[in-house]
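protein under study:
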Amino acid sequence: MPVELIPAFLFYCLVGSITPGPANLCSLASALNFGKKQALIQWRGLFTGFTIVSLCAVFITYFVGAAMGTYVKYLSYVGAAYILWLAWHIWKSGDPSEVNARERCNFYTGLFVNLTNVKVMIYCLTALSAYVLPYRQDFLSLLIVGILLPFTGPVANLVWLFSGVALQKFFSRHRRPLNAIMALSLVFCAYSMIIH
């Protein structure tokens, strides 16, 4: 990637990672409902899942290249359905309990969220195919960027997580309307994936 393209790439990473999506809203909801300790356990799963998706994107980009662009749109429909499922669960969630926290907010739920998160898949594939592949086709260049990408999205998840920790007392008093807002935000994410 040319040096003059690095600011655009970093801006893409910032916008793509900080905007609401399944992992960010999951981090926020987990911190609001279950607290920092349990949400950080789930975040480790989010980070691991993001890393796996990023490395898979490196291999897909390297071996399939530009031909994959025609299939990315189909992932949007699968991702939108998954995001709607997440929205439904946030909407229906009630008061958290200790058992509920261990079942719903753990390493494996975080891992599952990002392994099935089409926003992360498209984010990684786009970063690699738009910012690396046109300039460098070698596997090492793709791998270096693929290793760096997990330090963008999961860091944004932490921003959402710690925002949830800061708002936890407020949230406990207004749980139902805030769950509705987060669920509607996810519905908007699903809608925007289908429209574009």
